[in-house]
Amino acid sequence: MDNKFATVMARKTIEELVEILEVKSGNYLPEALDAANTELKIRKVSIEETENIVASIIREDIENEKKINTFEKLFLCLYPILTFIIIYLSYSKESYTDKREQLIKWFKYSLLFRFIIVFIFVLLDLVFA
Q1: What does the alpha-carbon distance between residue 56 and residue 50 come to, in Å, rounded to a whole number?
Q2: What is the Cα–Cα distance from 91 to 33, expressed in whole angstroms?
Q3: Which residue, among 109, 35, 104, 95, has the nearest Cα to 65 in the 3D structure?
Q4: Could you tell me the pTM of the whole model?
């Protein structure tokens, strides 16, 4: 039984197929999931290998959760004090210690950046005044 997703799934890596079936199955049609499952059977992927891939995907997701995103960093540079307070309070739970540490680090960077900009403007004012 060949469906329209079989050729698409044949081009995917084993990791991508496992992720489709085990992690993101709610985002796919049943026919696509059947094609992915069939492709894994054709490639003779063992259950142990599947479990290892799922574990590595979960570890990667956990590591990504520990990082603050680019939007938060950008906002922190533009509006440091207000953003720091808001984001710090939202990360006040114990499970967000890594994000809080990164937030403090980026807050320091933003203050340093502002100090350098002010210093440059003061120097330019002294030179051209």
Answers
A1: 10
A2: 36
A3: 95
A4: 0.50
